[in-house]
Every structure is written in C-alpha cells, then in structure tokens.
C-alpha cells in the first residue's frame, strides 16, 4: 500500500512537472498558473468554478490551485484521522452538558458549513473595522472582493445565533496566508464555541440569604466601557459570564489532557474586534507555553447583528485543532495531518477516541536545502507572496521557507532577497535531482511572477 502510494505521488508529481503548470487533483476546483509579465501577477480566468459554482475573479482574487485542491477534504470528519478523534473528544465533553430544563445536550454541534463565505460574514458581521489588518489580501485567500475562504470559524457566529442557537460549537477548515514552517500550514481547523445567557439563565443560582432571587441585571444604562467590561453591561453579569467561559475551557482541557494533573495554564489579556474583554489561554507542556485559543465576552453589537437585541449576553472562543492535536499525540509537523500514507493513518485506526496515543515517526527522511537569491527589478517581494508561490509549486514537499538575507544595493538601485527553501517528504527520500527540478521550476515561476533576476 505504501509503495503504491509513493508511486502515485511520484507519478502525479512528474506529470505536473512536465506540463510545467500546477494543477489540483480534481477536475473542477483547479486552474493553470500563468503570469502576466507586465503586471507581474497571476492571470486568472474570468471565472473560477469552485464546487460547481462560478465565481467571477477580480483584482482581489488570490486563491491558488494548491488551496483549491484541499477543498472538501474535511479532515475533521474523516474517520480515524487524528483531527476526527480530537473533535470527538471535544464533542463528548460538550454533549455531557445538559440543558437543565430539557435534559438534552445544551450545545449543538455544526461541522459541515462551506468554507466559502462572504466578506460580510467573515469580517463585517462580527464588527471587524474596515481598516483592520486581518482583512488584507496578504493575510487571506480571496476568491473575489466579496468572497473568500473563511479565515476563522467566527465567520458563522452571527448566522448560527440568528438561526436560533444559544449554545453551539462550529467546527471547520480555515484558510490563512502565513509563513511556512513545521507548525504553520495555509489551511488548518478551528472549533468555535458560543454560549448565550438571558437574565434568568445567568442568575439562576443567585439567591440572597432569605432565599429570594436577588434583583441582579445584565444591562444598566449610562454605563461605561473599561478594561473589565463593555458599556451597557453590569460588572456582575460580566463576571458570571467570564467565570462560565473560563470554567468551561479549563474543564475541557482537563478532559483532553487527563493525566496532566499538573496542567499549568494561564489567561493572557488579548484584543479581538468581536469580544471585550478578551483573553488567550495557554498551557505549559515540558516548560514551554502554548497558546491554544482566543476567547472573550461577545461584543453586544455582534449580538445585535444576530437580531438578539438587548436580552442576552454571551461568551465565545475559537481554538485551533492542529495545535492541540500536535501536543496531544506528539505529531511533529503540521503537514502530517494531510498525509495519506498508511504509516501515519494506521496509528489512528481505532474506535475509542479517548485512547491515549503517541505518534511514532514513520521514519525521518532527510532534508534537502536549496537557497534562492534574487535581484528585484522593481519593488521588493512580499515574503507571503513568495511562500504562496513556493507552496503552489512544491506542495507538501516544502517543509520550511526562511527569508535569510535581504538588503538594498544603492549602486544597482535594486533590492536583493535570499530565501532558504527546506525540502523534505513526509514519506520518502527525495533525490537531489528531483529537488533540483522543483527548485528550477520555482525559480522560473519567480522570474515570471515577480520579474526578478536569479543570482
Ligand atoms: N477568530 C479568532 C481567530 O481565529 C479566535 C477567536 C478569538 C474566536 C476570540 C472567538 C473569540 O470566538 O471570542 O484568531
């Protein structure tokens, strides 16, 4: 089986190389990479056919065939995948929490929403300011100016609340342009959590000494915003929601890491457009701190966008699944989640998702390092554009790309950049010849896309 897989990988790669274009595996969801040498941009067809729907392209379009080829894989729903086991464990934890009135699970779990969303969903609905850096082309994969691959599962918060849900998880693949190294990949998976409370639910437990309900309120007029709360919220409401959020998260991680009796964790103050106050949650493993999620008290204007007006207050969190799975199973490289190699997948072939497993490397195949130095004839290359191009050509054979040198040469009036590209396959030894061919291909595409001279 492994040998067969290897042969398949090699032969598809050779096919790609010979045609000198990068193609995704499926018939739709693909296009050839061609460059406009004058404008120095990728030439997109007037429309992209993605999941049987046509999307017009425009100056915002920056998706690439590598990203399109990953669409619909839904690793979190692939039976016996590590992300499937992890989401099962998160599911089990939340399903145990019952709605006291109905004795049914409090949280609904939604894991099948399309990752193609509107700018309205991804940013506007959750109050991301128009000039916020998270909207930029260099951080996202846009299909066109109105449509993109969701950058986070928060994109669905408002729609799900509007559909009537008061407590839910939303799990799915998210897409971001980022650096290339063993912990970053342009696609990863997130789990969003939201819980809302009306006055009765929030203060249910609170009775005064005579057993009467205290007249506690969620909202107060003429209130101010400061580090602890939003304007319009009472401090007592915020403190109860904060306690519920932090309890939910610490208990979740105690369940996910049951033998870490000494699981050290900490809350760091943070800022997000859609929550205030906000925090990040970190845990300590072997002396290293890992940031696992962002969370906070939902901005009241997000709830207003959801049509809930003034009755509810709530918390939200968003956690990265790969991060947690890498720690939980000892998976050293984020590309492994995409491996179809049976040496990897067979280690997760079991029914009981709570089974403690430590990943054993199939084998450490050698790295192959090639540098790429170039003079830029015009402007400096944005490293994120280069990372995208390298990943588009080299696919998952690229382990890491580092910008190792950059300077401006006054006499020549040119910028120079040198990138170190580290190649390594997850399941076979690459030959020098094969790497040289890919590297040459990357150089050629760089010349075409960025108008550079290779040094
Ligand atoms: N959407 C944030 C991200 O991807 C994570 C996040 C932070 C989600 C705070 C939330 C939240 O729901 O309340 O970086």
TrEMBL record:
Descriptive protein name: Phenylalanine--tRNA ligase, mitochondrial
Keywords assigned: Acetylation, Aminoacyl-tRNA synthetase, ATP-binding, Ligase, Mitochondrion, Nucleotide-binding, Protein biosynthesis, Transit peptide
Annotated PROSITE patterns: AA_TRNA_LIGASE_II (PS50862), FDX_ACB (PS51447)
Annotated FDX-ACB domain residues: 363-455
Subcellular location: Mitochondrion matrix
GO annotation (BP), single: phenylalanyl-tRNA aminoacylation
Function recorded in the entry: Is responsible for the charging of tRNA(Phe) with phenylalanine in mitochondrial translation. To a lesser extent, also catalyzes direct attachment of m-Tyr (an oxidized version of Phe) to tRNA(Phe), thereby opening the way for delivery of the misacylated tRNA to the ribosome and incorporation of ROS-damaged amino acid into proteins.
E.C. number: 6.1.1.20
Source organism of the structure: Adineta steineri
An example Gene Ontology CC term for this record: mitochondrial matrix
Protein family according to the UniProt entry: Belongs to the class-II aminoacyl-tRNA synthetase family.
Catalyzed reactions per annotation: tRNA(Phe) + L-phenylalanine + ATP = L-phenylalanyl-tRNA(Phe) + AMP + diphosphate + H(+)
Stretches assigned to the Aminoacyl-transfer RNA synthetases class-II family profile domain: 171-356
Complexes and interactors: Monomer.
One GO molecular-function entry: ATP binding
Main localization of the protein described in the UniProt heading: mitochondrion
Cross-referenced Pfam families: FDX-ACB, tRNA-synt_2d
């Amino acid at each position: 089986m492994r040998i067969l897989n290897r042969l398949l990988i090699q032969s598809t790669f050779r096919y790609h190389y010979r045609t000198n274009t990068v193609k995704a595996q499926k018939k739709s969801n693909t296009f050839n990479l061609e460059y406009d040498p004058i404008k120095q941009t990728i030439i997109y067809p007037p429309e992209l056919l993605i999941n049987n729907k046509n999307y017009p392209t425009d100056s915002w379009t920056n998706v690439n065939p590598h990203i399109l080829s990953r669409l619909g894989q839904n690793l979190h729903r692939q039976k016996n995948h590590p992300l499937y086991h992890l989401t099962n464990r998160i599911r089990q934890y939340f399903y145990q929490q019952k709605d006291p009135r109905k004795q049914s699970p409090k949280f609904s779990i939604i894991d099948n929403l399309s990752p193609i969303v509107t700018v309205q969903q991804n940013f506007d609905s959750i109050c991301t300011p128009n000039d916020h850096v998270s909207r930029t082309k260099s951080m996202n994969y846009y299909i066109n100016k109105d449509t993109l691959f969701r950058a986070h599962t928060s994109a669905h918060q408002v729609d799900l609340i509007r559909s009537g849900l008061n407590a839910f998880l939303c799990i799915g693949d998210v897409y971001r342009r980022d650096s290339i190294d063993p912990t970053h990949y342009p696609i990863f998976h997130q789990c969003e959590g939201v819980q809302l409370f009306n006055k009765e639910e929030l203060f249910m437990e609170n009775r005064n000494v005579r057993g009467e309900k205290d007249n506690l309120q969620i909202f107060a007029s003429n209130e101010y915003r400061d580090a602890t709360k939003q304007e319009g919220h009472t401090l007592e409401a915020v403190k109860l929601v904060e306690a519920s959020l932090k309890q939910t998260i610490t208990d979740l991680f105690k369940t996910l890491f049951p033998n870490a009796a000494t699981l050290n964790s900490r809350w760091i103050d943070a800022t997000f457009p859609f929550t205030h106050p906000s925090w990040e949650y970190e845990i300590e493993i072997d002396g290293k701190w890992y940031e696992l999620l962002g969370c906070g008290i939902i901005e009241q204007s997000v709830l207003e966008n959801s049509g809930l007006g003034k009755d509810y207050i709530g918390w939200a969190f968003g956690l990265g699944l790969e991060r947690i799975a890498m720690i939980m199973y000892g998976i050293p490289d984020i590309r492994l989640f995409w491996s179809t190699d049976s040496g990897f997948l067979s280690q997760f072939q079991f029914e009981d998702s709570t089974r403690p497993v430590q990943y054993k490397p199939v084998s450490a195949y050698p790295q192959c390092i090639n540098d790429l130095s170039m003079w830029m004839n015009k402007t400096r290359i944005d490293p994120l554009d280069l990372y995208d191009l390298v990943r588009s050509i080299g696919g998952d054979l690229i382990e890491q790309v580092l910008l190792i040198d950059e300077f401006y040469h006054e006499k020549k009036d040119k910028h120079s950049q040198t990138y170190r590209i580290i190649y390594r396959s997850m399941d076979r030894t690459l030959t020098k010849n094969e790497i040289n061919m890919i590297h040459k291909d990357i150089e050629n595409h760089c010349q075409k896309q960025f108008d550079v001279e290779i040094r």
